Predict the 3D structure of the following.
Amino acid sequence: MIRQITEDRKKRIDGVLARRQKDLTLIMDNIWDPHNVSAVLRSCDAFGVAGVHLYYTDSQWPDLAKKTSGSAKKWIELTRHVDAADMVGHLKAQGTRILRTGFSESARPVMDFDFTKPTAIILSNEHRGTSPELAELAPDEIYIPMQGMVQSFNVSVAAAIILYQAFVQRDAAGMYDNPSFSREELESLKTEWYSR
Amino acid sequence: MIRQITEDRKKRIDGVLARRQKDLTLIMDNIWDPHNVSAVLRSCDAFGVAGVHLYYTDSQWPDLAKKTSGSAKKWIELTRHVDAADMVGHLKAQGTRILRTGFSESARPVMDFDFTKPTAIILSNEHRGTSPELAELAPDEIYIPMQGMVQSFNVSVAAAIILYQAFVQRDAAGMYDNPSFSREELESLKTEWYSR
């Protein structure tokens, strides 16, 4: 069966694909709560993240079928990994800087980073933090300055704030005005998205 | 019984109170989901919001006792209202601009606002949006630009992003370096917070 697609929807998809940022990504490191995973993917969609990397070694990738906001999942390319060195090596070979959330002495605030550069941000398990083998490969820490009594952010809130900061910088630099995918990549993505 | 308080904790409380922003606030308009309410309060604490206004007319104020992140509630002054005109009038009399999230033609993006000015942001019920009587009193709309296929943010994510934007501006303007409360207000708050 061929599903009908309206011109409006085609236009919408074309516009969203033209704004997708190929070189802004997240690594989801064993985030287990489906609320959080679903909210993170929704923020990715909203700020034009094309794909995220799933590093699930201790936790199961949660079932998002029952989440009302699970629909964002449909529009984000998910790539699974089990080998941290392989994943990090591949990203670094593409010129991607890798950051992880953390509060060590050398950590720098989110406002201090230039997110117009190719960047991957590791978001970690709610209880255990960044997997040690991954932390070792990606020592650069980023934090959101907190002014209050409670000393942590929910992981989906942290993701949203970091991606918003990246969006503001990339938007100011005009990076949402020109596609980050090549013409060929765009054509192939369009064909695929039209059928979703 | 008098509870012991360590010098470290006193210092911590003093520091947090010195960074509290008296003139940055939220109006929670019938937000019903305890996850969302709890996450919003956590972001308030993190970005130095001193107090929020609770406008609950259709929904019950949710029970936060079971939320692990409910502890932020302890550090935010909660003021209940049932009369929208009274609440809005009181805020306006203090020189507070009131914004609500929305997408009408006159809505402006979050990056375009000057949050160093006294500001209250209305965050609304997850399903019904802003209460009509409140919307009428506060017509100015603010939105977070979205680049994706899904057309809405979770309310706690929206709150976090707006408060982060306010924080960045206020931080750059040095507003976290000098207390927004008077010396008398601070002394009274300290006494109260030490016993919490």
